[in-house]
Amino acid sequence: MLPYRSLQEAELALGRKLTWAEKLWFNYSAQKSDYYLYCHNILFFFFFFSLVPLPLVLMELKFSKNIGKYKLQPKVRLSFSDMVRCYRDVMRLFVLTIGPLQLASYPTVKWVGIRTGLPLPSGWEILLQLFVYFIIEDYGNYWIHRFLHNKWGYEKIHHVHHEFTAPIGFAAPYAYWAEILILGFPSFLGPALVPGHIITLWLWFIIRQVEAIETHSGYDFPWSPSKYIPFYGGAEHHDYHHFVGGQSHSNFASIFTYCDYIYGTDKGYRYHKETLKMLKEKWSSSSEQNGNGYQISNQDPKSD
Ligand SMILES: [Zn+2]
Ligand SMILES: [Zn+2]
């Protein structure tokens, strides 16, 4: 809730005219409590998670050949009931774990200093903070994920996320409730260390969620804007991790590729890509080989 009763009062306090975005924010948030504004995150989770994966899921069901050639595991087709079950289970997870976690973390959000007032952050401030959040999330997630692939972590917690060996967008948050809690830590560590405006926090959770959906989409589109992000792993990088499954010692990072490169956990993936490239070159005359990548090799030599 803003401490000003009118736009004029806000302008007087800031000593300048409000920008159009600040006027918009004033009109929207002036009478709303900080807790209510923070709870928007839950709504965003439901909204984006339900809508963003839909086009690809519909394409998967229709299996258009134009789009099918970009599918990473073309021989795996999930049924409509598999998709409904995945969506239903994740919705249950939202209601029982993610929602309550969001509600309960509000005191921490206030404590670290996430602000809701004016002035609004500049575009550069938002971009830099999001960059820091992504780096922290990626690094923390890498080590936690790698830990979850030990015998205990996998059998007790992480095996649920790997039920989908050829993931779809809806499977991005499909996991055991304890994994959601554990991986929530690196997600929130960035905003805790570099606190910003609540709008930046909303954007962070939305973009991170959309990124996870793309990573689990099962499709690698050459025209995806994410292709221009340096060291970005994308769907191909993480899909391979799911393809290999519980035995995987490759591609633990959730967003970028450099952690796997630095710590040597992408050797199996690189070996696989090299093998694939060689086979494609060898059999380039056969159109049958197009897009059959993961059927050629399922070896994941232990690399750490
Ligand atoms: Zn894993
Ligand atoms: Zn995954």
Walkthrough of the structure:
α3 (34-51) packs antiparallel against α6 (80-104) and α8 (123-148) crosses α11. With 304 residues, the chain is mainly alpha-helical. The chain has one domain. Mean pLDDT is 89; it is low at 295-304. It has 15 helices and no strands. Bound molecules: zinc ion (2 copies). One zinc ion (ZN) binds at residues 161, 167, 216, 238, 242.
Distance between the termini: 51 Å
Oligomer description: single chain
Q: What class do helices, strands and sheet pairing give?
A: mainly alpha
Q: What is the number of E strands?
A: 0
Number of H- or I-type helical stretches = 15
What summary fits the major beta sheet?
none
Q: How helical, in percent, are the residues?
A: 55-70%
What gross morphology would you assign?
Answer: elongated
Number of domains as seen in the coordinates: 1
Strand fraction: under 5%
The overall pLDDT average reads 89
Low-confidence stretches: 295-304
